[in-house]
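Purpose: get a first structural picture of the assembly so the mutagenesis plan has something to point at.
Setup: two entries, given in the order below. No constraints added.
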Amino acid sequence: MSGFLVFEDVAKHYGPIKAVDGCSLEVARGEFYSLLGPSGCGKTTLLRMVAGFEQPDRGRILLDGKDLSDLPPNRRKVNTIFQNYALFPHLTVYENIAFGLRVARRPAAEVRAEVDRMLALIQMEDQAHKRPDQISGGQKQRVAIARALINKPQVLLLDEPLAALDLKLRQRMLIELDLIHDEVGITFLYVTHDQGEAMSLSDHIAVMNAGKIEQIGTPTEIYEAPRTSFVAAFIGDTNFFEGTVRETLDGDYVRLAVEGLPDLVCFNDKRIPPGGRVYLSVRPEKLRITREPPTPDPRRNAIETTVEDVVYLGSHTRYWARIGEYRLAVQQQHSRYLLDEKPIVWKERAWVSWHADDGFMLEQYRESDEALMSLPPAEDAGEAAAKPEKRVW
Amino acid sequence: MKRSRLPALTTLLLLVFFYLPIAVLIVNSFNASRFGGAWEGFTLDWYARLFRERSVWLAVRNTALIAVGATLASVILGTLAAFALHRFDTRLQRAHYLLMYAPLVVPDLLMGISLLLFFVAAGFRLGLFTVFLAHTTFCISYVAMVVLARLQDFDESLLEAARDLGADAWTATRRVLLPLLAPGIAAGGLLAFTLSIDDFVITFFVSGPGSTTLPVRIYSMIKHSRHLPMINALSAILMIVTFGAAWASRRIGERNAA
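Result (structure tokens, whole complex):
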């Protein structure tokens, strides 16, 4: 297949720091594509190379078959939504939106018609004369979108566009972004550290870490079948078991030896041979916690644990259950609370179980994954700190 | 709660220290007495004589010419210097910054003498042109520092946004950078203008026949006691012009802020 926006082995170094270390990916025309990763993983650098603010040291970026490398930012048919919106403070909302068309010296009547159309799209007709410091964060966001879209870019680049908004507003803008994408049909390249945003909006996600792409896939593929332990830990929560493949069971399953635990059964989609060292990852919502041992089943793992913490969250409860050195996160919905269920409580013995098909084995191991084994992924403070100083004039 | 007397007292002291001498000067400019001191009746005679004094008018013309010229030249050069200092960050640039900053702290006397020696060595004839050059020299530093401070607050992503929206480097500079920098450039220019108008020490060294500026002229008039009341009148007028300029610049600032 040949994509609409194609990265071919793109790399960018800042001195000894490899910001982007050989990334290849293809974005199809009209799709919503996300670059997802922690702060400093190179996703913003990749975006800025498409915009033309950075030049790749190696590799090429092709848009609709044409190499972008030698084009300055103003000659590329792409537009950017900046993290801080970068609205021009000395211009009104109207003039901000009109900027691209005026620079392109389009006839005044056309500019007026187009800006009015954009103002209607973002529902801000009555704010046209205001300056950026007189409107709210969500409105600034919408002006930034209108200002970019009026140029009819082939690709819209969005650099953490919701990071500066509060939670409620973020959720609303998320829906608006989705609607706008459906309405204009432009290719969106979306950079974020927030897996929730990426999951809910994207057709495809590229998960990045330390300048490299860890996995490319649909949100479902990324969540349900992470290829590396980094992806498994970064996207959602997960429990890791460290073990060795002991033997293969009737083709698709293996028996896994884990220190301090009885042997575990696991689906072996990656055909890992006996002796292979692996991580077994099981998401909290795939685990069941019960007071009684579950009915024996050769495809089901069951471990007796001690409940260390119980956090009631309304829609579900989160349990922390300990066995040996493992502290397992379990997420479970309640059933029939009013009838007969007696909730499991702190310090109680309880059985944690899961089906062999609900865990996935990951063989890749890297130093950087170490930190992720025990901790939930750290909250991102924003990419800004990792962004190198670069001036365009 | 009892209101503190301190603010009122501070205001009073401020008025006494700063404005009492000025008030005395203005009152004296209407005093019929030749030597000030005792009040001998109201007169506009000193103002009338001032307006008839050809040498004063010549000095006013020179001062205005030099101030306008030096302001224009230093605004252009100082702004460019600030751009250059801001854009590149190397060890050499830090040395440039120090060199640019130094004239702000070098004593005027030193500047005046060194410029004089330089002009003489270079074979310049002292006159309006050398005064203009000297004023431009020290004004550049002030303009550069004011504009540089403004540039350091400037959000670079605005230029990226302009480029992103299709503006070439020059268009982005003209439509985004310069309008946002304009208040800083104007402030620098105003500072340069006032510094040029009232500079005495440096001008004293580098001016030649026919290029006397107002401050130098006032100084030479003080030496003749018969001119003293005229100086009062002249100072009163200067004061009103200066206050007017300061008020205007504030108005411009307020309008930009709104």
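The radius of gyration of chain B is 23 Å.
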